[in-house]
Amino acid sequence: MTDARPDRKPSRIQQRNRKRILEAALDVFSQQGYRGATLDQIATRSGLSKPNILYYFSGKEEIHVTLLNQLMETWLDPMRDIDPMGDPCEELLRYVHRKLEMSRKYPRESRLFANEILQGAPRIRPHLERELKPLVDSTSAQIERWIDEGRLAAVDPMHLIFSIWATTQHYADFEAQVQLLMRDRPHRDGAADYLDMLYRRLLTPH
């Protein structure tokens, strides 16, 4: 099919429609997963016709990949901001708190990413290999240096990173369960303090 989308800079209406499509698709993909989502669902949610959506995107996969690529830029920023010259424990705790805050602000994005990973990362694997792996490798090496300097307790850097992801993104990925189990109080009440205590105890040299 010939791509009819213009090469010139999109108008404000076109930019607004594209944003509407992506916002609607984020809702649909985060609830239905990639396989369960359809262009018809995205069209209904966005209030635009299916042909209108296909004017801006070639299909469901392009919309999904666009959302994932946008997400990855946001998702990696907290790790990129870890300061090698800062206090190791405080830098890692700041990372924990930023990841927890992101789970509060971006629950749909977190579930979008989780669903993609559960399917084997077929659409985002190149991004993971090109962006995520080098960043995690360099962060792990920095944690290892801090441990060697005696500034952090001896922990496995890679499993530390995995545990931070698990304990923060849980509040987004399993939001319905957390809300049910904590329905008598705000479902993130105490999470920041608990994780601060947990990781401070884990990371402080003895």
CATH class of the largest domain: Mainly Alpha
- In CATH, the architecture of the largest domain is Orthogonal Bundle
Number of structural units classed as domains: 2
DSSP summary, beta strand count:
0
Query: Roughly what percent helix?
Result: over 70%
What is the global morphology? elongated
Taken as a percent bin, the fraction of beta residues is: under 5%
Radius of gyration: 20 Å
- H and E string: HHHHHHHHHH
Examine the coordinates and then state which fold CATH places here, giving the name of the CATH topology of the largest domain.
Tetracycline Repressor, domain 2
Low-confidence stretches: 1-6
Helix segment tally? 10
Give a quick precis of the structure:
The chain has 206 residues and is mainly alpha-helical.
Secondary structure blueprint with pairings:
Elements: H1 12-36, H2 39-46, H3 50-56, H4 60-80, H5 88-105, H6 107-118, H7 125-148, H8 157-173, H9 175-181, H10 191-203
Helix pairs in contact: 1-2, 1-4, 1-6, 4-7, 5-8, 5-10, 6-8
Describe the structure.
The chain is mostly helical. It folds into two domains: 12-58, Homeodomain-like (Arc Repressor Mutant, subunit A); 65-203, Orthogonal Bundle (Tetracycline Repressor, domain 2), CATH 1.10.357.10. The protein is 74% helix and 0% strand. It is built from ten helices and no strands. α1 packs across α2 and α1 crosses α4 (60-80). It is elongated, with a radius of gyration of 20 Å. 23% of the residues are buried.
